[in-house]
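User: Structure please.
Assistant: Input sequence and predicted structure:
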Amino acid sequence: MGLGRGKISLALLLLTSSFCVEIITAIDTITSTQFLRDPEAIVSNGSIYTLGFFSPVNSTDRYVGIWFNEVPVVTAIWVANRNKPLNDSSGILAISKDGNLVVLNGQQEILWSSNVSNFVSNSSAQLSDTGNLVLRDNNNEEIMWESFQHPSDTFFSNMKLSANKRTGEKILITSWKSATDPSIGSFSAGLNRLDIPEIFIWKDNYPYFRSGPWNRQVFIGVPYMNSAAVDGLNLVDDGEEQTRWEHGMEDRIVLWSVPMFDCEFYARCGPFGSCNAQASPICSCLRGFEPNNPEEWYRGNWTSGCIRRKSLQCERVKSGSEAAGKNDVFLKLGKMKVPDLAQWSRLTEIECKDRCLTNCSCIAYAYNSGIGCMSWIGDLIDVQEFPTGGADLYIRMAYSELDGNDRKKVIVIVSAVVGTITSAMICALLTWRFRSKHRARKEGGEKLPSDTNEKHPSFLDRDMTGDSMDHVKLQELPLFSLESLTAATDGFDLSNKLGQGGFGPVYKGKLSDGKEIAVKRLSRASGQGLKEFMNEVEVISKLQHRNLVRLLGCCVEGEEKLLVYEYMPNKSLDAFLYDPLRKQLLDWKKRFNIIEGICRGLLYLHRDSRLRIIHRDLKASNILLDPELKPKISDFGAARIFGGDEDQANTIRVVGTYGYISPEYAMEGRFSEKSDVYSFGVLLLEIVSGRRNTSFYGNEQALSLLGFAWKLWNEGNISALVDPAISDPSSQAEIFRCIHIGLLCVQEFPEDRPSASTVVSMLNSEISYLATPKQPPFAERKHHINEERLHQNEEKCSINYVTVTGVDAR
């Protein structure tokens, strides 16, 4: 992981600066007699890493750093003299007389040192194939110093960030000051807690982002994070340290990144406030609380947070007014990012609740089997509501805060418990009677149904909730057995996991005939279920187009629900587009073909197929790439089929992804073909710029990529939006035309946006004249935000973002 240059990026590797090395020697070790003089370099034994002198892009200063040896775009992952650059090419990296590794200038002044206090007469520094530069005492082979214990902005394979329990010292990664200046910047990242490990990012030593607690698989405050085995992330208590490791590979795939949304900035809604990225406004007070400063709160300044509406019974008892009312209650809030500053204990779930209930100072508790008991006695800070994932948070509140429905739920829950126990007893009795009769009949020689060739009911006969339509839909597809798919994926082994979506995990598999497949398995913990499963079956089974992913079949057995797709070896568009190295493979010609292919697939859905389909979740991660990097639209779980005379519809259940949802859909639940066109416009601008819509923040005076593009359009500086990787004068006109089309697609009102068929004609220049685009939604910051808020939330949407990445072998 790494902290970005001008960005904050917690990532395995980070693209920051390009440079070249003029001379590379064959050795991997520096000794007292073998030193490096600029521009010489050494290479690790397996030719994986290089150590030498470099200059960042657009800079003449010289630094000593480590980078990948054979990666086309060289990336500095460690820098020695980051705060004291050389101003010429006279630099030397050598072993000093006291055994330290030092960087010297032409006047033999020490600009940087490993700074080991013990004098060693015979030492050497070796660059390993893990990227670690190790200084050893050659007399006893003891490690004196290593670069892994003194990282720069990048956290990569086999490195560990640690927090020492005895001393409280932490090993952190720190950002570059800018793309041209590797000196220590404003941001740092590392582990903050020892009892409940969390990753924190700090800006100028103040919390900027918090991951939520580690539950032995994921950080529960990052709901889109996959399991540890997929992300290559692990935390181990070795007695003194909390450790993180990552297996070593060459290519990188961004697995998750933070902050992605406005809600992920620390304490966004103040004490006792809750943030929901899908709500408008995003901040609200927790149940039983009200704005501390109503005037500022309703103007969008949420930092003052919320206060309790009614005193707790505990508080009234303490003040002497015991006749106040009934005892306090705990209200369950599901799918929450639990607050910061939790107290931790090893109590069971029941013990956790009882302790908090009997302790008037305890205002909230949560329990997670991978973490234990968490409780809070002060302000609840940095609370967030998720659509899926998170944890159940129980908040103490006055009984009088419960409404009639809440009180009925208490009775219903009690009744349900009694009913469940009764049902269990009845089932047990019936089972016992059935087995007794079965045994008696068998002993009497009677032939039982199980002894015959009679066909027993399958899932399709019995378990499809009695919906004959579902039966028909499934019979239109080839059916795979669970046994065959289990064998194809090696038992759904984590090594075959391709990714994770709202539906559930996706695995790579190989059938007995050698055909490769992708298997989407409905997660039991998924926010989606049978409805989305059947929706995808119904929609995609009827579609055939080269720019749509092909559904090969499905499997429904017991509680298992799986969809089988053609396998896409290049995974999804976002794996290329937002990766500093892989994006270099997408030149402008390939990107234009991807843009055109997506639009043709969209046109087929809207107009050319036998159904009219609105996708409703068009985004980079739902665009798969075949071996030739041709795009295929995937994931139809949220799609909606329109009747012949329908042109729009309304819903109270808005589905989709933040940043891609059109304003009329997000605000009013109204969607149409133009909703997909809006999402396509966002995606088009992302492809041209190489940046996420949600990665544009305060430093660029825009809330999003759309706002930034609109600002540059009005300034006549649209070239600044273009990804440097595709900046080519010969393609400039076509690139600018695509930006123009993208801005037409993201106009605020649906009637102003072109249809998919019109966009195809625009891309092919069949329509030469393009109208002047109107301002997209959310293009400008709200001017009523006062200076105090800007100071308190400085760079709340900065250009800094964090990514944790994993890598796959080439």
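The chain has a mean pLDDT of 77.
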